[in-house]
Amino acid sequence: MLRELLVVAGGGAAGAVARYLVSAAVQSRTGPGFPWGTLVVNLSGAFLLGLLAEAATRMPALTPEMRLLLATGFLGAFTTFSTLSLESLALLRSGAFGAFAANTLGGLALGLAACWLGMLAARAL
Known about the structure:
The protein is mostly helical. It contains five helices and no strands. The chain has helices spanning 2-30, 36-58, 64-78, 81-93, 97-124. Helix 1 (2-30) packs across helix 2 (36-58) and helix 1 runs parallel beside helix 3. The longest helix is centred in the first third of the chain and has 29 residues, at 2-30. It starts with a helix and ends with a helix. The relative contact order is 0.18.
């Protein structure tokens, strides 16, 4: 059990740093009006998780330990539903109702699509 916890912690540390770097890079290019950084992180994470989930069913090289490292650790820390929620409420409070709807509903719909596309990509490999 300790080994699994360390694997998840290592993946989580790397995923959190990657989330910060990707989100900050995107947000610095798009400005403060809409949380594009969080959207990009969540969509790319959903795509990668779909890819990994599908690949795991087809590739014995993806051991349970590798799935813990990548899915639970890295991608669990990389994606951020809590930040999506907080940023959506900030948009709502500021009266940006269109941006609130786009971020909330668009984030969910596009996240589902990204995950599905990741699964299709894994099947194609």
